[in-house]
Amino acid sequence: MGCAGSSQAKGDGPVKKIRKPKAWKHPQPITKTDLARMRDEFWDTAPHYGGTKEIWDALRAAAEADLTLAQAIVDSAGVIVQSADLTICYDERGARYELPKYVLSEPTNLI
């Protein structure tokens, strides 16, 4: 017999499958170079928002992977997905991780 808190109990509900974020639009047209710069700045500063570097690294890998690999990454890292598009996640200790849509997908007005 194991401890009820040692793993996800059946009553906790199913593991949330991740999906691509809904289409979004940047306030002004943006180039791929500017989008890449914004993403790099976010990932460089993300550990300063709290949580652990290991989870931030796993979230970055998941954000840059296809959906199947992303699901495997978050599952193996123990990430608890609050929003199926990965915009809000938690680690097993309860630390919250918020990802902006621009690190998860491209805007509709990309130039």
From TrEMBL:
- All residue ranges annotated as the DC-UbP/UBTD2 N-terminal domain in the record: 16-111
- Basic residues: bias regions: 16-25
Annotated region Disordered: where?
A: 1-30
The record's section on Gene3D superfamilies has:
Ub domain-containing protein, DC-UbP/UBTD2, N-terminal domain
Q: Which Pfam families match?
A: UBD
**Top-rank lineage group of the source organism:** Eukaryota
Q: Which InterPro entries match?
A: DC-UbP/UBTD2_N (IPR032752), DC-UbP/UBTD2_N_sf (IPR038169), UBTD1/2 (IPR039869)
Q: What is this protein called?
A: Ubiquitin domain-containing protein 1
From which organism does this entry originate? Cucurbita argyrosperma subsp. sororia
